[in-house]
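Changelog-linked ticket: adenosine-5'-triphosphate example.
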Amino acid sequence: MDRVLLLVPSASYRASDFLDAASALALQVIVGCDEELVSAGASLKLALDDPDRAADAIVALDSLTPLDAVVAVDDQGTLVAARAAERLGLRANRPEAVGAARDKLRMRTLLSRAEVPQPAFAALSRNARAAELASLVGRVALPWVVKPTSLSASQGVIRADSVPEALAAVDRVRSIAANAGVASDQPLLIEEFVHGPEVAVEGVLTGGELTVLAVFDKPDPLDGPFFEETLYVTPSRLEASELQTVTSATQAATRALGLTEGPVHAELRVRDGRAWVIEVAARSIGGLCSRTLEFGTGVSLEYLILAHALGRPVASLRRADRAAGVLMLPIGTGGVLAEVTGRERALQVPGVVGLELTIAPGRRLVPLPEGNRYLGFVFARGDNPAAVEASLRAALGELEVRLEREGPLKHRLAGR
Ligand SMILES: Nc1ncnc2c1ncn2[C@@H]1O[C@H](COP(=O)(O)OP(=O)(O)OP(=O)(O)O)[C@@H](O)[C@H]1O
Ligand SMILES: [Mg+2]
């Protein structure tokens, strides 16, 4: 029986989907988590924010109970997995490549060297003032996106249309990064804002070769100033030639970073028939979004990832034929969640196949750019992407968020 160490940060949405896949593959699982777990299964507390220390602990574990794979379920564990896998001689990306994918400035630098199409960019000192910003106008065309180099879920990502707006954005991003524990010597990043529709590519790398598993359209415009993701629908409705450039740019980006094995999740914008790389991460799609995907005869993305890590053959990497999509419920107003109403009606919308809330009543909702949690997910399937999109929008129209006391008592999720 193969034994897998799954790196599951305590804040992860993915634990149960990976555990289900591991049980479908009849694997023995040890869960590595940044907090002590009280569950029945085997587990190990690991400092996921200290890759060297965590890798030492994993090597020590392996000497007692040999591991066949170390798999990070999302971003936070990828560097630990790569360090540990390298020392244990397991199939994985090189740590430097994973490190580059985790650091948006290093990623931009490597993509630029390899001439992969991407926005113009510049590093910015954390205390940048007006003069430093004004000096960038000639190098990076406005509008800009200001962002931290190491956060995710669009936390701290802000569009600025002018130097004064950028100055305000820098202040805000700096405090978001500090609150998220980002070291104060890390720079910020300024990028040209790339117009055009955005897609997400889900893929898997084997020996450096990319297999695209799915391309998602993001049909709600992502024009800022904050970049809240709502709809993901697959298959993409882009032209075949546009999809081709999306695939080649993703492959070029993974090569430029040196990624060779396992899942990749890339975001690109399509402008003037070309694909522009927003980012490439060495992990699979976030939140619960992977539940939209099914391969061959009903195999999950998590199953594919675990099978790949173990070098086991998989019957088919072909996505099941029906169109599918997910709606990430937007957080419009901050406050303490009382309840989300209309769930039964949303579930009755034709095409809707699931709804899961991921913030419990009594917990605080924090909108972007400060927030980084998803309120919940609605899943739909249909005969084509337009039908799926319509089902998700109809479901959104049925849902209402009720906050406790402070703020407006009720606000509709749709039509904000
Ligand atoms: N240069 C850019 N041009 C256009 N849009 C951008 C740019 N940079 C970021 N965005 C928008 O902001 C979103 C989040 O940015 P980015 O992917 O860099 O941050 P992130 O926090 O890693 O996001 P996530 O974890 O959600 O993938 C992108 O998906 C895109 O919609
Ligand atoms: Mg991103």
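Closing comment: Example verified and attached. The pocket of adenosine-5'-triphosphate (ligand 1) is lined by residues 119, 145, 147, 151-155, 157, 191-194, 198, 222, 227, 267, 269, 278-279 (CB under 6 Å). The chain is about 30% helix and 25% strand.
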